[in-house]
Amino acid sequence: MTLFVAIDTNGIDPEEGAPAPERVISGQPTFRTWNADGTGEGVYAGLWEATPGKWRITYDEWEFCHILTGLSVITEDDGEARMVKPGDSFVLKPGFKGTWEVLETTRKEYVIHLPQQAG
Hints:
mainly beta; globular; 9-stranded antiparallel beta sheet; 9 strands; single chain
């Protein structure tokens, strides 16, 4: 068993999805997600792609993102908007609330860490 995992879409069928209808502000955004690796303990990595549209986002998880293609605007509820483009990297922390607007189909690499569940 190898402990090296390449993050790419070859041989992985994407999960198809969309934001919940009540979160959509404009457009008809759709998602494709290629989950390339996960520990089963709340850490996941892969690729995500979204088509144009705007929707509300709320983060309970910690997520590192690296934009590969496209153009999006992420706006925090306090009003600060950030344009993200290829080459940009950022972290969205638990508690982040705002909107994600895809202007051009956007693909990102991600690493997500889910909070520990109380047992």
